[in-house]
């Protein structure tokens, strides 16, 4: 008897649910819209701070937001697009990927309020369907071209820490080295042509950047090479968070070439930061040029609320909330542009980075590999890992020839208006 009653109740519930889904019964449908989904790269403390700021953005709009943070951002987004279930807003650090999505009609051009905050070099406009429009806006930025070292150590003869592992994107700490060296040796014009596929990988300036890196690293034992290839850019794990390469066991090194974001593992007062230019064998003419990166928000949804969310996130009020929610070590950095809140440095390291970004940098160039089409960027990552293991001239010539083949193939396909053509203005 009980089983019969249960079956009857179950059938009744299923029928009622079906009727509700068909909107045949008043009151079955809800007036509350689904939460907007935001896909982004931040996890851990960074992710919690961003999610907390996101939850405070309601301001009476009645919309709620769901944040999905992942270290495998490209893979996650590609799978969602293939399933025709993209997020409403995605936050990416690759101009190359964003350009690809814009040319395939996956992105929606930004409304004017958000587009006004798309400052160079983080968000160049794109020509799509014979219209020049803005498709993304930076939410936070990072200064590269930095060297970290232990307080009290001399910078005259540095021993370099190198950790190249990073899940699916291993190798990018090495591409950062080569990009930074090329920028300071050859200057922003050559850097820009190379990053946007208008300069051959076999150009002498490009080759020199690779060989300079090998020379700076010096002789390394097979054991140290293997350790660098298998150790995370964050260093070895500590009790609460990674130790950073400068403090990791087994790394007898004094200096590290890394972006400003790494400050979250160096929270004490025993580490200093300085511009990388003087370490790279570059020209004094390009000393005040810096490589930068960023995390850019783009709209994948037709929902007008997604456009409004990007406008709120990029507004002064949104950024103030984000800073207020974040621990000092992971607070987002913003350049001093009109209408944005000034950053109050939390410590001497952040003060130095803020001063370089907003006062002393004369030229800012976006991360070259993050401008390249994804196929070429990934090939660059792999080539760096191979070169690190074997920097012989003959091996380098082979690697550069392979990269040039990939570049030429992408360039040949660019005759199609829907194929990848990178923006050209990546230095400002």
From TrEMBL:
It comes from the Bacteria. Residues 1-30 form the signal peptide. Keywords: Signal. This is Extracellular solute-binding protein. The keyword Signal applies. The lineage of its organism: Bacteria, Bacillati, Actinomycetota, Actinomycetes, Kitasatosporales. It comes from Streptomyces phaeochromogenes.
């Amino acid at each position: 008897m009980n089983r019969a009653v249960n079956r009857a109740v179950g059938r009744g519930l299923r029928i009622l649910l079906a009727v509700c889904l068909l909107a045949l019964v008043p009151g079955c449908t809800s007036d509350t819209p689904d939460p907007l989904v935001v896909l982004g790269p931040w996890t851990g403390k960074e992710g919690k701070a961003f999610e907390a700021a996101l939850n405070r953005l309601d301001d009476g709009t009645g919309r709620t937001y769901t944040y999905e943070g992942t270290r495998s951002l490209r893979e996650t987004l590609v799978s969602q697009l293939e399933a025709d279930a993209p997020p409403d807003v995605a936050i990416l650090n690759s101009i190359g990927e964003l350009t690809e999505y814009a040319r395939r009609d996956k992105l929606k051009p930004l409304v004017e309020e958000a587009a006004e905050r798309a400052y160079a070099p983080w968000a160049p406009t794109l020509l799509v369907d014979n219209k020049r429009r803005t498709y993304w806006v930076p939410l936070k930025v990072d200064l590269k071209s930095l060297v970290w070292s232990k307080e009290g150590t001399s910078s005259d003869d540095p021993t370099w820490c190198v950790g190249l592992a990073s899940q699916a994107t291993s190798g990018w700490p090495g591409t950062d080295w080569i990009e930074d060296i090329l920028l300071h040796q050859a200057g922003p014009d050559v850097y820009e042509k190379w990053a946007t596929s208008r300069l051959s990988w076999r150009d002498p300036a490009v080759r020199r950047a690779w060989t300079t890196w090998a020379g700076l690293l010096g002789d390394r034992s097979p054991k140290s090479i293997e350790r660098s290839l298998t150790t995370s850019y964050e260093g070895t794990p500590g009790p609460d968070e990674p130790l950073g390469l400068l403090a990791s066991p087994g790394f007898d090194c004094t200096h590290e070439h890394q972006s400003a974001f790494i400050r979250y593992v160096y929270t004490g007062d025993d580490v200093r930061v300085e511009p990388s230019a003087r370490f790279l064998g570059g020209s004094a003419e390009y000393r005040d040029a810096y490589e930068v990166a960023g995390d850019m928000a783009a709209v994948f949804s037709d929902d007008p609320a997604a456009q409004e969310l990007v406008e709120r996130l990029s507004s002064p009020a949104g950024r103030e909330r984000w800073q207020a929610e974040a621990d000092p070590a992971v607070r987002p950095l913003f350049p001093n542009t009109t209408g944005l809140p000034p950053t109050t440095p939390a410590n001497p390291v952040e003060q130095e980075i803020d001063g370089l970004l907003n006062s002393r940098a004369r030229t800012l160039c976006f991360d070259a590999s993050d401008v390249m089409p994804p196929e070429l960027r990934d090939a660059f990552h792999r080539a760096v890992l191979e070169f690190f293991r074997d920097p012989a001239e003959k091996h380098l010539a082979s690697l550069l020839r392979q990269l040039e083949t990939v570049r030429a193939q992408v360039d040949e396909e660019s005759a199609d208006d829907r194929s990848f053509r990178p923006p050209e203005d990546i230095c400002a």
